[in-house]
Amino acid sequence: MEELETWGWTETGAQSYLHHCGARVTKRGTLWSARTVASASAGRHVTALQAAAYLQENDPWFWSYGKSASFGNCGGIFFAAGCLDGRGKDNVFACHLSLHESFPKYLESTFGKFFFGKATCVRCSLPMADLRTRALREFRFSGGRKSAYIVCACGYPVWRLEPEAFSAAHSALVSALHSWRRKERLRGAGGKHSPEDIQEILAAQGRRCIYCNVRFTRRVPAEKDHLLAVRHGGANWAFNLIMACKRCNSRRCDIPFRTYCRLLSPAQNKRILAHLCKRLAALDFDHLSIGALASLELGLSAHDPRHWRYCDIQRKYPAARRNAAQNQLLPRNIVEKSLKARIKEQREKSGD
Prior knowledge:
The protein is an alpha+beta fold. The chain folds into three domains: about 1-60, no CATH class; about 65-185, no CATH class; about 190-350, no CATH class. Helices cover about 40% and strands about 20% of the residues. The protein has helices at about 1-5, 50-60, 105-115, 165-185, 195-205, 245-250, 255-260, 265-280, 290-300, 310-315, 320-325, 335-350; strands spanning about 10-15, 15-20, 25-30, 30-35, 40-45, 70-75, 75-85, 90-100, 120, 135, 145-150, 160, 225, 240-245. The strands form three sheets. Strands 6, 7, 8, 9, 10, 11 and 12 form a seven-stranded antiparallel beta sheet that branches. Strands 1-2-3-4-5 form a five-stranded antiparallel beta sheet. β7 and β8 form a beta hairpin. The longest helix is centred in the middle third of the chain and has 25 residues, at about 165-185. It is elongated, with a radius of gyration of 29 Å. Residues about 140-145 have low confidence and may be disordered.
């Protein structure tokens, strides 16, 4: 019966199979009885495969992931998507949470925007209207544990949605999850800065992106970029912030600062280095804590040429690959040089 199990059937007894849509085939005497999703008897058949095939062809509520199954987890919401009849005629999905967990608050609005009024119940065709959940016996993909499924008012947990719409919805949920995680990391990163600090940084950069030098406008707003990425321990102090356009900020992501700069043109690197030296010269090192100074040094010295995103950009963009091959890294000891220059300056002043 290996072929039967490949298509979503699970052996529940010596002579009984349950499909993840709820249909069942059971041997009674010498024949196999088929039972639809709605628990209606559907004839008697010589083999289990014949009974399963009959249900797949004739039960209007039968659905199968078949060989095109796709599964995913987004913030604790588990998705499984496939085809209504296993042959690609209609897209269906089911989603569930762990039984005693609530739907993530930060995903509610995004989920509602992309699924409410658009996904329709496979059983009764009503559109999804709320986050109604119900504890159900797991389908095969769920591993045998109980979960709270998002169900229709009729109690059924399987929904229709066009493949393109489902893909867009899933992408939006992933984006919302990443945004929430970043905000959580920022909350726990420590450090603080004021609006005045941001204006000073913008003025020092000439109100241009630190990387591509595009001028900030209403259409191209400035975004905060951390020299030492938050996920690597960077804090929210002003000295750990530079201003970048959305495109450059997203492109760099968590690539170490010096590593990312190597992908840029030599002219860009020269301009960035001049700006950093200017910023560092203006810092009050006397009032920087040891931890803050260590974070600044790490942000300006870290380098990871094996970072997957750094390698991916080189693979996709020949210009970035050429720049990486010819550029020298920004100096590792920028902070140390600035400190020495500050000490020298203070000594000269005290000598006067």
